[in-house]
Amino acid sequence: MKKKALAVLLCAAMAGTTLAGCGGNKKDDNSSKNIDAESSEEAEVEAEAVTTVGPDSGTKMEMWSFVEMHNTFYAKMLEQWNEQNPDRQIQMTFTTYPFTDMHNKMIMALQTGEGAPDLCDIEIGQFPNFLQGEIQLYDLSDALEPYKDSLVQSRLEVYSKDGKYYGAPTHVGATVMFYNAEIMEKYGIDYTQIKTWDDYTSAAEELKEASNGEVKMTSVDTAGVDWMSIAMAEYGEDWAIDGEDGLPDVQLKSVKNMLSMQQEWLENDLAMISPDGHTDLEAGYQNILDGNIASFPKALWYMSRFLNYMPEMEGKWAMAPLPVFEEGQPCSVGIGGTGTVVTNQSSDPELAADFIAFAKCSKEGCVGIWENLGFDVCNTEVWIDETITKNTDNQYISFFRTNPFDVLNEVKEEISTLSVTSNTPLINDYFCTTTLNSVLQDGTDVEEALQDAQDNLSIDFVED
């Protein structure tokens, strides 16, 4: 199949379209699905933020990110690196750009062969654009090797091509179900007994009756595809992969079943449509604060949203594995992410690679990611270190009724990963602008809506 490689690369970068379920904290509905949700509030940077860390005698390097908190973390890790490596000192200038501006600048710098930084954060949905043609990124495989056995392999694979690793991962993004345990207890529902989507629907019916319809079990999204990602992961399907006819297939059993189930929930008043399209926006936070919904699925990085935007919810919410359609299916999927790259224009790519592997993949680096950013880190040594996992002084552990590491360890063997390809932005954008609204808002027949999506996307998948 011929792809519109250059067109996809440029259009996807300018649109800022991302991986399934990744939405920004933007009030503009049209942009709500355009930023990696792990750190979307930081993607609102409107001007460059620049800081320099390290001795003047160190190797001069430049690093770009679209998340100021990421650069703050990297700066802390650089200080540790310089303390531990007196013979390999680095002076780094960190620059934070707006999301779209940064990815566009990177594409142009790599295309022209000049102006690229030594290191750069690349959002997971943008990453395939940088693996097309002759790759202009440095192979991180050797730098990652000391930590590889402790890392969640699937998160490395997301940033790889032909057996080489080009990005250092930030987190697993394991998706779980968040439950308002206080509400569930009030109405006599034991969320810990929910194992399947049938169980979940039954609990929703109980909740409707007990609360006189005042509380919905959940909200379904029209501006994000997290729910579709969950379904595909559980069935082992993937709409970004080419089918027998050379085209990706969105008419999957998993997607049909999820949309049909959600449509029935809405028809039976068991669920509501997420305000502003999904739960990771201001209206979504308020909906949770108002007690209108008792649960919703989201990756573990959503914990930071509670602390930042819903501190009143402390002690009320718990986390549990996702329900599945059939017992035995995997009950989690990794959603969102940022891969940090070293460019082939780096003044010392080996040094840059060793630093970023240390910062993001070593145990001490991952402890820093957990404590500073609240992400479920990729180094599993952290998951079993009770000085970290049982530390009740930690703001995330103390906030929730369940320990996030307990849930993470429960699902660790079942965290699926979907492909991120050049097809991903096209599919996500069409579903968020057309298909989800058609099915969930307008009540269009699911089969009909998916056929429409397949027909229209097929035009974009192939060259005219």
Summarize the structure.
Strands 1-3-2-4-13 form a 5-stranded mixed β-sheet. The protein has a 3-stranded antiparallel β-sheet with strand order 10-7-11. With 464 residues, the chain is an alpha/beta fold.
Could you explain the architecture of this structure?
By secondary structure, the protein is α/β, with parallel strands linked by helices. It has helices spanning 5-15, 68-84, 99-112, 141-144, 153-157, 181-186, 197-210, 226-235, 253-267, 282-289, 303-309, 349-361, 363-373, 386-389, 395-399, 404-411, 424-441, 446-461, and strands at residues 49-53, 59-65, 90-96, 119-123, 160-161, 164-165, 175-180, 218-220, 271-273, 295-299, 317-320, 332-333, 338-342, 415-416. The protein has a five-stranded mixed sheet with strand order 1-3-2-4-13.
Radius of gyration: 22 Å
Mean pLDDT: 89
Strand order of the largest sheet: 1-3-2-4-13
Number of helices: 18
Task: Count all strands and give the number.
Answer: 14
Low-confidence stretches: 1-45
User: What separation lies between the terminal Cα atoms?
Assistant: 12 Å
Strand-residue proportion: 5-15%
Work out the helicity level: 40-55%
The major sheet is characterized as: 5 strands, mixed
Describe the secondary structure blueprint for this structure.
Blueprint: H1 5-15, E1 49-53, E2 59-65, H2 68-84, E3 90-96, H3 99-112, E4 119-123, H4 141-144, H5 153-157, E5 160-161, E6 164-165, E7 175-180, H6 181-186, H7 197-210, E8 218-220, H8 226-235, H9 253-267, E9 271-273, H10 282-289, E10 295-299, H11 303-309, E11 317-320, E12 332-333, E13 338-342, H12 349-361, H13 363-373, H14 386-389, H15 395-399, H16 404-411, E14 415-416, H17 424-441, H18 446-461
Parallel strand pairs: 2-3, 2-4, 8-9, 12-14
Antiparallel strand pairs: 1-3, 4-13, 5-6, 7-10, 7-11
